[in-house]
Write a structure and sequence with these properties.
Blueprint (H helix, E strand, L loop, with lengths): L4 H36 L3 H20 L5 H18 L1
Helix pairs in contact: 1-2, 2-3
Length: 87
């Protein structure tokens, strides 16, 4: 348990940051799952519309360093390849 004021403040800030990051990660996972489902059901038109939103969210998460930039690039690349393959 931290004792110094600065440590206590750091602990509070870390908790806020962690909760915010978890919220963004959950949203990202949900949208990715929706896109995967659309691709599985061969619903290409809606998948193309959703892909731009998904890639935007992935980029924002990478910019905020919630996910690693290379992970973001890999996810976008694989989704784009799967979308092209399905179309």
């Amino acid at each position: 348990m931290p004792r110094r004021k600065s440590s206590l403040k750091r602990k509070r800030a870390d908790k806020k940051r962690r909760l915010r990051n978890l919220k963004i990660k959950r949203q990202l996972k949900k949208v990715l799952k929706n896109l995967q489902a659309l691709l599985a059901n061969k619903n290409i038109e809606e998948a193309k519309k959703l892909f731009s939103k998904v890639s935007s969210q992935i980029d924002k998460a990478a910019k905020k360093r919630i996910i690693h930039p290379n992970t973001a690039k890999r996810k976008k690349s694989r989704l784009a390849r799967r979308l092209a393959k399905t179309a």
